[in-house]
Amino acid sequence: MPEPKKPSGFDDFDDRLAKLKASRREGKRGPDTDERPHMDWGRGLQAGIELIAGVAGGSLFGWALDQWLETGPFLLIGGFMLGAAAGTLNAIRGMQRLMNEGDDRPKGPDSPD
Amino acid sequence: MASPLEQFEIKPIVNILIEGVDLSFTNSALWMVLTTVAVYWLVVLGTRHHAMVPGRLQSIVELAYEFVANLIRENAGKEGMRFFPLIFTLFMFILMGNMLGMIPGSFTWTSHIIVTFFMAICVWIGITVYAFYLHGVKFLGFFMPSGAPIVMAPLLVPIEILSYSVRPISLSVRLFVNMMAGHTMMKVFAGFIVAMGVFGVAPLAVSVALTGFEFAVAFLQAYIFTVLTCIYLHDAIHMH
Fold first, then answer.
1. Cα separation of B182 and B7, whole Å?
2. What is the tens place of the pLDDT at every residue in A57-104?
3. Could you tell me if B169 lies within 8 Å of chain A, comparing CB atoms?
């Protein structure tokens, strides 16, 4: 329920409405509400999970191909290496994304410059 | 002392066995149904009045709507808004699942890898299919980094393909690991309270802090899952 004794609430609402309308006109993102949760402890964990997922996924893929093509352990080894590379790539990209989180996103999250 | 892992046990409520396939209705399924009902109830009740000045429930729904809409616009671009219903559903489903999991005695279905992996693989397949629908064969160019010498292609392309293919794994593992680790830790510290007698005050304090922390994680993980879905969608739409 709205509280009739609080006109300041409506001021706030008007402010937000104006901001939203402005951002609409610009065709950009919403008002600068800093709603994004920033938590540093999570960043390291995220990178770690990307690494593990890369290695595990690559190894699994190589192993499955080995089973199918009966090519000994070679594809498993190759898959492990490629997976480690892919995991590192994903981890780096994830970190880069977190770094430029403040900016608007004119290019891809992983554009080098 | 009860095992801290007991909370993750799947228990059948109604046994259903069809041609040797176990399709039992389990506690996990029950809590997923409850999650769906809760989200549905929240959104339907919240939008019932269409009030100009929103009430409490309507505020929650409007906040959630705005939050997800901004998320998509920022991370996937305007074209991503086409997928608003899917992403809003995903966000609300995971968020409500995580939050319901915080009720003592409830079951946290997001702490099971098979559930999160299925969600992630559905999102991943859907986005990949959409990317091919949008760009056709040209989408394969996504796997060759622009500006790299063509000689490197035999090495770079497999790495890029693999890094794309492991996305559902990291997406699902992240959610599942966070939920499972958090809930296990809460149970472990809660167990210490009883075991340590008078000195149980210390783990009690930790337990209180962890509970607040877990609420943050519950929201954060739903947020991260949604953001990453948007970013993958961005890749599919804009191809870089």
1. 12
2. 999 999 999 998 888 788 899 999 999 999 999 999 888 887 776 544
3. yes
- CA–chain centroid gap for A44, Å, is 13
Tokens of B135: 């760009």
d(CA A20, CA A68): 56
Q: What is the pTM of this model?
A: 0.80
Residue contact B166–A54, C-beta within 8 A: yes
A2 to B216: CB separation less than 8 angstroms, yes or no:
no
| Residues composing chain B | 240
- Chain B CB contacts of A87 under 8 Å are 163, 166
Interface pTM, i.e. ipTM: 0.75
Q: What is the dihedral angle through the alpha carbons of B102, B106, B109, B112, rounded to the nearest 10 degrees?
A: 90
Read off the amino acid at residue A52: I
Assign residue B20 a region: left if phi > 0, alpha if psi is -120 to 50, beta otherwise? left
Of B159, B234, B240, the CB nearest to A86: B159
